[in-house]
């Protein structure tokens, strides 16, 4: 059990490093100056990076590379931006170095990922008479009990909700609340095809094995997820595929099922850790409330 003084000390470090993460997320297109980040953290340039690695479990360079490649996969799967431009925006001096790194992480080069990546399975196949590789059987109907999560609000692109998760993880770590039992939950309130990307509302949440008092804390809150019947699609693959998964879930499965969407937001449960898992092996349950 942490003493109150210990919590206060860790919380101050977590708050300082959260400012660094905010800067990284907001400036992924720019070279990241280590000394400038030390200044943002208000920590010694000689030591702050070791503190960062100890608290977040990865080096700053690993964080930046992971976030840039995650975003690059989204550009490839969901848009038509030229690969050379994606490479430049991802901080690579040459297309060859970007291709080499992307291939090592995602298992295929960028051009092949765009053409035939895992997101393709949600799209109709011309070779298969217009039938999508996904089937109605890939969705399971479950009765889910309601539960509460400790959460941090996020406004902006859904692909950047990791920013709120990192803030939440720092808050939990500063209070000694991280555990193997916690469950990672993302709640999504708006339709990205109808709401401007910068105005999309979501929450990064964590279910904890015991209740936590967050009264008086302006950073986190407790959010309730309503119980009831849900259509659950288990998605395996990069988070960049999610847009295609949702398009199939709503546009193919729901309209061809006996169900209607309930008046409650969709949520996702992340079943493994993106810091420790190859993108192709990430598991996510997409939970759509239905009646």
TrEMBL record:
Presence of the UniProt keyword Transcription regulation in the record: yes
InterPro entries linked to this entry: AraC_E-bd (IPR010499), GyrI-like (IPR029442), Homeodomain-like_sf (IPR009057), HTH_AraC (IPR018060), HTH_AraC-typ_CS (IPR018062), Reg_factor_effector_dom_sf (IPR011256), SmbC-like (IPR050908), Tscrpt_reg_AraC-type_HTH (IPR020449)
UniProt keywords, alphabetically: DNA-binding, Transcription, Transcription regulation
Domain (HTH araC/xylS-type) ranges: 18-116
Signal peptide span: none
Molecular function via GO: DNA-binding transcription factor activity; sequence-specific DNA binding
Any Pfam family matching the protein: HTH_18
The protein's name in its UniProt record: AraC family transcriptional regulator
Lineage: Bacteria, Pseudomonadati, Pseudomonadota, Betaproteobacteria, Burkholderiales
